[in-house]
Amino acid sequence: MWGRECETWGSEVAECPEAGAVGASRGGFFGAGSWLLCPASSHHGYEGSGRHRGAHSLAGLYLGTRPGADKGYCVPWSRAAPGPLPLLHSHTVLASAAESSSRAGRQTPACVQAHFYQRLCRQPAGVCDCRNWAMLEAHEAPDVTWDGRFSGTCELLTLHAFPPFRVLPGILVLGDSCPAHVVNSVFGFRQADGRKVLRSSIREFLCSEAMFHLGVPTTRAGACVTSESTVVRDVFYDGNPKYEQCTVVLRIASTFIRFGSFEIFKSADEHTGRAGPSVGRNDIRVQLLDYVISSFYPEIQAAHASDRVQRNAAFFREVTRRTAWMVAEWQCVGFCHGVLNTDNMSILGLTIDYGPFGFLDRYDPDHVCNASDNTGRYAYSKQPEVCKWNLQKLAEALQPELPLELGEAILAEEFDAEFQRHYMQKMRRKLGLVQLELEEDRALVSKLLETMHLTGADFTNTFFLLSSFPVELESPGLAEFLARLMEQCASLEELRLAFRPQMDPRQLSMMLMLAQSNPQLFALMGTRAGIARELERVEQQSRLEQLSMAELQSRNQGHWADWLQAYRARLDKDLEGAGDAAAWQAERVRVMHANNPKYVLRNYIAQNAIEAAERGDFSEVRRVLKLLENPYHCEAGAATDPEATEADGADGRQRSYSSKPPLWAAELCVT
């Protein structure tokens, strides 16, 4: 199944007509008589079981019972008043993931498409081009708006009661019995207007679909709809705001419950003094936990129905495993999330909330894709440990339903082992090691990444090229292979751009003086990591100024010759256990092509699509989407051949979709 819940980020909040109960979906996920998103009687007061009556922060969205029943499951939603936002007007369907409809093996009726766009855009569907929409059914639902409630934790800071999205009126059914609901954006969040804009919507839409087709656990994107309505955004927080188009992204997943959903019960934080909005309400924590386990982990519920502690332990163990598996997949495709707070961690181990993400170009383990992450907390190499830290926070939030010592023991036992197991399994496939699993493989992978770092090699293209490595010792193709590999290493100009200082030298000098004269104040400013990185840039820049291109190429060739020698020796061991050399080589290449993508959503590719869309040309978004739906494509073709460079635009910004990034891409900044 594709999923059960849908989010639309940036969509409109409409007026609320008469409400009513919402029925279940023909014996599917919700049982007969279940209800969703609305009270049965009125807009003005939540009507649930007696002890939850009223506008508590975790009221609403009961599943499995009728309103007014004595028992029911509760997930974190609370009623919110719609704000005076302008409606989308003159909107256009930028792109949609039509592939999903083929899962059910039937076409989407035109009337259903039109009805869906009417609900999604808050406007008559006649002005929408919905020919490619993939939704199967849409059911009437009352217009009721709910805030999603959860808390979020990052290092040394706890933020409570984020209202990051709105539940839009509309029940959608994916497949024959897979219910879904539509959710809005961050209206009122951080005193903002909650509108998503075209720029970030395109990035989120394309990346969530790219990750799905890469095989990474993720939420999906169903459609992206933009309009002529505009809002003011200060894109780089530098005092230069501009108008941007309001846009809707439909996101789909089994659930959007996060680690942070369980943190609304947290006691006062020792640093901020803030407590969760539902602190002390263990009765609601019990209901939320029961709902999540019974709905999304039914096998665990069935196996431990008589022992709640063991059930909760099994649940936390499975969440730990899924999270470790997910982040291992990230590391293997070079994906950087950018904002790994607990509120951005799915309880199902899915990649969720695509914001300032990025894919590695030049391999750098310390790469930070989010320009707002001044401390480098969410750097590429730190993602596994941050995910583990977030699981620790989830274990703390599950107390007393899961004793903390038991949760910590499970985390220590499962996370590192599962991460390393899946990471090495994937890396062996990426290297074409199809016969043997040897302990030395870990060192081989580590040395490869070190070589890529030293030579500034492109992460995606280097792995892809390895499938053409000639395994014969005296192969005449070795020199050609090495030359192609050198093309994927960073040039001197690229390195100088990458390591250019980010701070004014006078500011850096003042910060260093402060560190010497008042180390306590310097520590409180939280800039130690940033200063250390800046000093490294200055030192690296100084070395690069004294290096010639010929010296750089000679050094790079030496590094790669050393690693390729070790790689060939390891392949020889694999071949010895294979018997048939030709069959082994064919299987090796097949496995490598299935695990090393040729196409990922590089920032410059996304930027080209965004700039075209801002000019009213959405063809590039659709073209990139089609390409990302087949990232492991290896056959030449007119539409998707990466070796065929696209025609240059007026500004020379078009390139092959599998090229290393152009020099101008070094100036791209995502926050």
From TrEMBL:
<dbReference type="Pfam" id="PF02696">
    <property type="entry name" value="SelO"/>
</dbReference>
<keyword id="KW-0067">ATP-binding</keyword>
<dbReference type="InterPro" id="IPR003846">
    <property type="entry name" value="SelO"/>
</dbReference>
<keyword id="KW-0460">Magnesium</keyword>
<keyword id="KW-0547">Nucleotide-binding</keyword>
<protein>
    <recommendedName>
        <fullName>Selenoprotein O</fullName>
    </recommendedName>
</protein>
<dbReference type="GO" id="GO:0005524">
    <property type="term" value="F:ATP binding"/>
</dbReference>
<dbReference type="GO" id="GO:0005739">
    <property type="term" value="C:mitochondrion"/>
</dbReference>
<comment type="similarity">
    <text>Belongs to the SELO family.</text>
</comment>
<keyword id="KW-0479">Metal-binding</keyword>
<dbReference type="GO" id="GO:0005694">
    <property type="term" value="C:chromosome"/>
</dbReference>
<keyword id="KW-0548">Nucleotidyltransferase</keyword>
<feature type="region of interest" description="Disordered">
    <location>
        <begin position="636"/>
        <end position="658"/>
    </location>
</feature>
<keyword id="KW-0808">Transferase</keyword>
<dbReference type="GO" id="GO:0070733">
    <property type="term" value="F:AMPylase activity"/>
</dbReference>
<dbReference type="GO" id="GO:0046872">
    <property type="term" value="F:metal ion binding"/>
</dbReference>
